[in-house]
Each structure stands twice: as structure tokens, then as C-alpha cells.
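=== RUN LOG ===
request id: a7f3
mode: sequence -> structure
chains: 1
length: 311
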Amino acid sequence: MPELPEVETIRRHLAPHVEGRVLERLAVHDERWSQPLAGEELAATVEGRRVEALERQGKYLIFALQDDVHLLVHLRMTGALLLDPVEPPRHGRVTFSLSGGRTLVFDDPRRFGTGELALGTPAREDFLARRLGVEPFSTGFTSAHLYALTRASRAPIKAFLLDQRKVAGVGNIYADEALYRARIHPLRPALQLKRGQVAALRDAVIAVLEAGIAAKGASIDDFRDPDGVQGSFQDRFLIHLREGEPCLVCGRPVRKLRAAGRGTYVCERCQPRPRARSDRPMPAAPRSIRASQAATRRSASRPARSAAASS
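=== RESULT ===
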């Protein structure tokens, strides 16, 4: 699934080609893309409007259109936006026809991608606020904020990072890479992290996302930029997909396990596995032992008799 660096790579590539142009026609070839709106209804709202800006929040690519109309596009698992493709893509679901003869095609073999409409900035902000947590490159992404979020979560830290309502834009690849850099095991409960660990994790998240953007994303399965070119971050992985290879720090073989339902890569020397903790109450002592303990406590609580009183 394209994560924040891949979506940001697409945004940076497309922005000079679409900003300032008029979206003359939007042809929705697959109605699933715009549900619950009908494709014609969505198209009628956006057609004829100038693209004021192409923005991103989390994994959403946002076409900010004239008159405060916003088209929010999510690539999901296999979506890609292709600019002026030479041949019609095999799985084209939507075609954007822009002024100046430019064409943008949303290609998506698995048909999970979506396009949603927000009329007005408040509607856009409400839509995103209900789905996304803090943006990693925003001023709000502080170690103090992240620490406060972890205090309310018993989920493994890998699952915590993948929850878009906590941190926007981080997915499987970048969660693995950030946890390795921060030396935190993916299965460690978020609630157990100390302040120093959370601070290290916050810095690691920013570092891996910046590295991913610099490499123009990671192309493992389907991701490519609007010209069809793959990214190169997969050539720089420190831990992800390196099962059986030596850890780059200690040399111990990298393990693959399941965390948050996803294939997860870890060095269990550099990222110590959390100790098992039992939440089951201790079994009650047998009744005979409890009676003996009670008698001992009563005896100990009686005041000692003085020698004079006993004579």
C-alpha cells in the first residue's frame, strides 16, 4: 500500500502539471470509486473548476478546487495516478481531463481506491479529522503528544503506529523501519514505552519518512510515480523484508513474525522482545491455610499481658 512517502512523491511530481489547470472533464468508469456518490454526480460538481492546489494529508491526495471544493483521493492497496500515459492503462477507473491537453488516469487493479467529495473547508477538515491522527511533519507531532497517546493504548506498538487515527500516513514498511531505528520490539505494548523510547520513536518516524521521500518511495509490488517510474527506498531498507539476513548492527539473523496482522521484521537482540506478563489473578489459598493465617493475625494483634497482671 502506498504510504506517506509514496503519496508525497506523487503529489510533488503532479503538482506542477495540474495546479492552475481547469479540470475540464472527470470520467468515472467504475462507480465503486465514488460511492456513495454516483460518478456523474461527483463529476458534475468538480468539472469546470480550476485546480488551486494539490495537497496531501496522511495518505490522502487532495485536489483543492476553485470555490472551496475538495476532491480527496485515496490510492489504497494498488492505486496509481498516471500522467499522460502513452497507452490506455489496463485497469483505468477514472480519467481526469485537464486544460492544455493533459490527462491523468487513476489505475487500480484491485479496485480499492476511492474518490470522495468535500464541499467547503469545514467539511474537508471534519472528514479528515474523523479518519486521521497527527501529521508526522506537523508541529503537533511532538514526543509529548505521542507519549500521551501511548498512555491510552494497550495495543502492540506496531499496531499503534498503523492506526491512522493515531499517526497519519505510517504503514507497514515505515513502521518496521522506525521501530528498528528506535530499538523497540513491534509487540511491546504502547503503554509500556518509557518517555525516552517514545522520543526516539518520534524521531525515527520522521527520519524514515524523510528518507522514503528522498528515495521517491518504495516500489515492492505496485507503486510507481505518475511517469511509471519506481522508487528506490526498497534498496535502503535496514530491516523490512530482510528475513534471515544478518542485522546490520549486531549480525543476528533478522526474524519475520506477525504483528497487527502484518508481516513484520525484527532483530530480537537489538529490539528485545517484551517479557510475557500474566493478567490472571493469583489463585486463592486453600480454606485451611486461610483459617490458619487469620488465627495468626488475630493472635499477633492482641496486646501482650504484663508480668504483674499474670502474677
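=== NOTES ===
The two ends are 90 Å apart (CA to CA).
Residues 303-311 have pLDDT under 50 and may be disordered.
=== END ===
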